[in-house]
Structures are given as C-alpha cells and as structure tokens.
Amino acid sequence: MSATDRCFSEAGANYCYSSFDGQSTAVWLLVLAASDMETEPDHCMENFNCHPISSWRLALLAKDMVIMGDTLDPRASAANALAGIGILGTCDGLVYSWELSSGKKVATLHPLKGGVSCIAVNSRSDALAVASNDECVLHVYVKSPTEC
C-alpha cells in the first residue's frame, strides 16, 4: 500500500481514502518519535510530565515519503493541530501555537500551573481544549466570530 492510499475498518464500516488522480498531495503531521537520550535537558528527566524517551516533531508526507523535522520543543508534553495551526503544550505549563507551513509563532495561550497533559481539538467548531495535570483544570478556547 502506498503512503497516499489508506483503508481502515471501524465498527463494521470500511473507510478508504485515496489521493487525487494526477494531483500531488502534501500533508503536515505531528509525530511523537523516539528521542536521543543524550540530548534531553536535565529538567525533563526530573519532571514526569515530560516524555524523556520521545519528542514531538513536525513531518511532511509528500510523494510517498515522510520527511522528519527537528524536535519542536524538548519540554513538549502534548501536541495537536487545527486548521493549519500547530498547538504545543509543555511540561512547565506553556501553551503556544504556530503556523505549520511557515513555523511562524501565532500566539501564546493562557499559561497553566503545572504541565499540560492533553490537547484536544474539534475541527467542526474550531474549538481547542487544554488540560493541566496539577490544576485539574480544562481550558476551552473557541474562535471568536471576528476571527472567521
């Protein structure tokens, strides 16, 4: 199976997705990949919210190839993407977003006390939810009508 053709089954239903005939397609991916332990910072080794054996990387899937980028932020504990924007949360509570295509920083969201444990998105409503380990708090962000 080529990298542009995918089929899977879910609850008795089959789904198949294929690339457009005669058109090239490129997809940005957020990948949690194995880390080089020698390059991990000491603060990450001491903080259980960090992933000392893995790191978030941006990758590009194009022409049946995956091109892996550098580690995004060694403090990253959660990542997701929404409408061409990458969202990253760190083990020390920082949450920021950037354009996937250019790498340009878009915004820094409300800082959390403690580490970010999860980032969830809903592409239908452009909603973003960020959970904190230490506060037991869920922050929900929704695009305002003026941003549409």
UniProtKB/TrEMBL annotation:
Source superkingdom: Eukaryota
InterPro entries reported for this sequence: TBRG1, WD40/YVTN_repeat-like_dom_sf, WD40_repeat_dom_sf
GO biological process assignments: regulation of cell cycle
A cellular component term, taken from the record's GO annotations: nucleus
Protein name, UniProt field: Uncharacterized protein
Source organism per UniProt: Acorus gramineus
Organism taxonomic ancestry: Eukaryota, Viridiplantae, Streptophyta, Embryophyta, Tracheophyta
